[in-house]
Amino acid sequence: MTAFTAAMAALLADPHLGAAAIYRQGGSGPPVPVRVLRSSPDRVAGAFDSGLLQATDVLSVAIAALPDLAPGDSFALGAALLTVTAAERDATGTAWRVLCQR
């Protein structure tokens, strides 16, 4: 286990940072319980010469828990259902950065 893998495991296990989620491949596959780190930054997008504020959701998920992710997969966090729009691996190969839409 690398230092990055150990750090990711510690962050996910922390009850103040990590959250329980249910992952479904393709949005309807069998449920897989995972831990995620969730952030919901607002993004400003331009349209018609004005700024639009859009809510976004970004999840960090250990690659060891989910070795493959694709657009259309989903995560359920409590009452929120998040659909994967894009996923990218970090430079160390430890975690996914998952962009989702509500």
Topology:
Elements lengths: L2 H11 L4 E7 L7 E8 L2 E6 L2 E6 L1 E6 L11 E4 L2 E10 L5 E7 L1
Antiparallel strand pairs: 1-2, 1-6, 2-5, 3-4, 5-8, 6-7, 7-8
Percent of residues in helical segments? 10-25%
User: Please, what is the average pLDDT?
Assistant: 87
User: Spatial order of the strands in the main sheet?
Assistant: 1-2-5-8-7-6
Strand content: over 45%
Radius of gyration: 14 Å
Instruction: State the end-to-end CA separation.
Output: 34 Å
The topology string of helices and strands comes to HEEEEEEEE
Assign the CATH architecture.
Beta Barrel
* Helical run tally: 1
Largest sheet: 6 strands, antiparallel, barrel
CATH class: Mainly Beta
What name is given to the CATH topology? Thrombin, subunit H
Number of strand elements:
8
Count of domains: 1
Please explain how this structure is put together:
The chain has 102 residues and is mainly β. It has a single domain, classed as Thrombin, subunit H (Beta Barrel), CATH 2.40.10. The protein contains one helix and eight strands; from the N terminus they run H-E-E-E-E-E-E-E-E. The strands form two sheets. A six-stranded antiparallel barrel has the order 1-2-5-8-7-6. The chain has a two-stranded antiparallel sheet with strand order 3-4. It is globular, with a radius of gyration of 14 Å. It starts with a helix and ends with a strand.
